[in-house]
Amino acid sequence: MKGLCFALSILVFIVAQAYAADPVYLDFTAVREIDVTQAPCARSKPFSDAEVLSQISPIGQDEELVDAEINGVHFSHEKPALIELFKKLTTADRAEFQHRAFALKCAKVLCAVQKIFGPQVGPRMLFMLAEFGFNSSPMAFPRDVADRPTQMLKLRELDDVLLSLSDLPKGMMLKHGSNQVLIRAKAAGVADATIELFNGWSEYNSPTRRHVLMHELGHVFGENGVHSSPEWRDIEATGYVSYYAKTAFYEDFAETFAAYRYRPALLLEMSKEKYAFMRDRVFSGIEYTQPEQ
Ligand SMILES: [Zn+2]
Question: Cα(138) to centroid of ligand 1, in Å?
């Protein structure tokens, strides 16, 4: 018994020291499930089929309709903007995978993407590319950076990706490119900044998928010169939102980005400087500290 008490007192001492080292206990990552489900100005439900279609219909509405043949599909009286999106979704980025000719009888792009990718998945892929500039098509990116084959995102996975993207200010990611990679590859791990989603991401629940993707979107934003700017590096040591943030300046940026969106109170507590940087330099002055009215 005496031995047990001694062991326990040692354990209490070690735990107390661990907490004393940091004024606030840090989790490995900044954002918890509850932070995503209770985040202000965030959708609680995925986009419905009707909402996705209503987002697609205004695309290119002022354009003159044209006829065109893309990858074997003959479009007639279609909007050029939609034809361009179809081209991006079905044309491989590498020459050896090109020359695809679909045997489809579709005069419209919506019909074509529904037949090729699925009646619900196709319109979501079209919406994601048009609205956010991210292309999830394995036909566009048949292999990943490690030359592994890519695969389709399932319907519920695409829903979570769209939820995450819709949590950002409108047009924010589109500024960084209109045909960016956001693909699923069958591999161990969770996700990377290219952006690639792996088996581990698919196994997570919806709020965690949304949070992980927000972290990767932070990398995409940071890699456009922001995370290596002197202004960011100067405030690096002012405070961290997670242990993971301490591993590298770019992980700090991605963790801070995700915390700004889903757990701003923690970020404000850890570093007012980083909060102000995110508000002014990244999120165009939009803040998420107030619950939705
Ligand atoms: Zn990261």
Answer: 23
